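Checked the freezer inventory, then went back to the computational side. Two predictions to log before the end of the day. The first one is the construct we discussed on Monday; recording sequence and tokens without edits.
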Amino acid sequence: HADGQHVSTPLQGLVKPSAVAVSAAYRWEGVSVCAAGDGGETFEPVSWLAGRRVVLMCGIGRPRRFIDAARNAGAVVVDAVVLADHAPISEAVVRRVNARATAQGVGVVLTTEKDLARMDQLPERWKSLTVAAPRVQLSIDRGELLMQKVAGAVGAGASRSLDR
């Protein structure tokens, strides 16, 4: 149920309200690289970014984390075009990113996987630049058992909802 009643009841008493029940982290496991022109797509190690000058473009809720992660991976972030979360990637955005990259002598746009998927709607506009996006791996550091119980409770709640 959307109201969460089926989920909240089975979860009561699993953890103390003040306890940290789940700790998760993400890491970049590699970089999808779409080469300029029709160079195709390759998957490179994160080290591919080391020392590379990039214009970063993203439309996510916490862009600072993405910028910091890019720098931590060794990318030299020359400029950043930060859009609102889920903002459309319009022709105007494409022109702005291209202009900034050209002005800075940068041939690589670094973006998120989500934004890379949305950029496919404008393929012709990106052909002069290499576009790269890190592939993100989520890992649960602790709380695996709780996550299994949550998944089971959510699944059971969904099953009960479907049976009605």
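The second is the one RB wanted added to the comparison set:
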Amino acid sequence: MLKTRLLCPFLFLAAAMLAPAAHAGAVTYSFGLTGVDSGSLAITETSGLISNITGTFDGLTISSILPTGGGSIGVPDDEFFTTPPYLDGSGVSFALTAADPDGYGFVNLSWNSVLSAYYAEQSVTSANTGGVAFGPDSLTLLSASAPEPGSVILVMIGLAAGLVMRSRMVQGSSSAR
């Protein structure tokens, strides 16, 4: 009985210590892209930086994210904001699995603060050699999902505490007979 009384507070203390880490990981946001361009994007970010992008752009599959900095189309910084506008003026650059009918296979999607809209700079090369800007576009948040390790831990601790309480009740009822 003494062990049970010591175990329950320890379990709840462990849950309280681990719960704040629940949002420390990556979050994936699903977007719909409409306007001059169209598509569905899944952007994964960690601590405000985009680490991955998947989905479709103008009917073509996105194959990979391009490196940040001056070597890629649009000079992307991959910064992500959890409220609109989700991207800044440098945006995110990515490659498509194939070129579109105009020969463009590389895209930089960014926010134009002067025109208050998203624009897609498209190019035949991934290099920052200047591309053609298409827009305006709208980026609509469809959903966001984050793994919740803290919640899983809390459920496990709750189940453990329930089992401890149940075993105490079973022990109490068998000794009363």
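For RB: DSSP finds two helices and eight strands in the chain. The two ends are 18 Å apart (CA to CA). Let me know if you want it refolded.
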